[in-house]
Amino acid sequence: MTAPWNRFAPLWLGSRGYSVTSLGAMRGISTLTKVFVQPIWAACGDTYGERATLLVSILFSSFALFLVRYVVLSGDGDGGEEMHAVYAVSLARMFRSSASAVSPVNDALVLAVLNGASAYGGSRMFGSLAWGASSLAAGVLIDCPTATASSTMKDGFKLLWSNRSLQAVLAIEFIFSFAMATADVIVPFQFEQQFQTTRATNGIAAMISIVCGIPFFSFFGPISKALTSNRRGSTVTSGVTDFAPILQYSALIGALRFALSSQASTPFMLLATQALHGPTFAINWCASVAAVDGIARGYSDKSGLALDGDMNDSQEVRGTLLSMLTLAYYSLGNGLGGFVMSNLYDNHGPGSCHIASCGIMLLLAYGSTSHFLKRQLMTSPKRFGDYVSSLIVAEQGTQGAV
Fold it and tell me: Which UniProt keywords apply (predicted)?
């Protein structure tokens, strides 16, 4: 349900008369809704159970999609640039964003069932494959016809305020996703407006990125070990030592992707760059999820909770912290990036968006070297999530002693 919406809803709204700038503004408004809704979903998942929360969100999402369709087709959306039309569609999209904000609860359920983040990449592979396949299918089909919850949130936000590791991961993901907004928001319009391709081509582009990212999701454990073995990391942020070199590699791959796409003169060249999009996202996202899961496990250890994989014992703040990660990436970074890049696209063309994202990625890669690797520590972890967890526990033990 979400894959066709994310990929093709902006294009559909554009065909109704909305400019790219208006769509960027609506995206920013709708994604900002997640800032307020995601902590509520996460707390409900931690308190009442993920399965029940996910079921409610599915029902809410179905209603929201019908609401968006009704508002746009009722006549208000035909005007395109009239402000009342933008407000009406933005309000309907806020309901849709409220429903999609439940995604961290789904991640929390997967992590709890799999006893941590070590197997998260493999499970994410199937979701990514379904995402790409549904995007391709949607493109073809479009072408065919033409209270405890409150305390849990407080615990999570207290951890955000005091834990430097969590702050670092969220800041990094905000910047990373800001740059990735060019691939998520601008590239679909580039295919349709610059190269005049079909919607199926957009679906193929999504499928290429997903297929190329599958190996990196599936084998994230061995890949992370290979990237961090015999490598000196940093203890500046303690809990994300091994996150630094993985971030550096993913940012460099992303910079290469945007550098190449900025020179794309044919749709085939732009399609080819999609092969780098999947690995860039997969490596970065799995590493950030592993880091956040390690922080949650460290907090559970400190709180005296069991870490034996029982969903009722080891997930008290996992959903809330994953909600923060998703907020930083999808809602704040990607939402703001989509707004900025859409304006850049309207005023200076797609090439400027790709160049800007390439520069951000290069700065992020340089920052991971200059900041994260100042204090060096030899690492060769067997499991990235467990290693991060051990660092967090050690850090908190030191703070407690002080």
Answer: Membrane, Transmembrane, Transmembrane helix
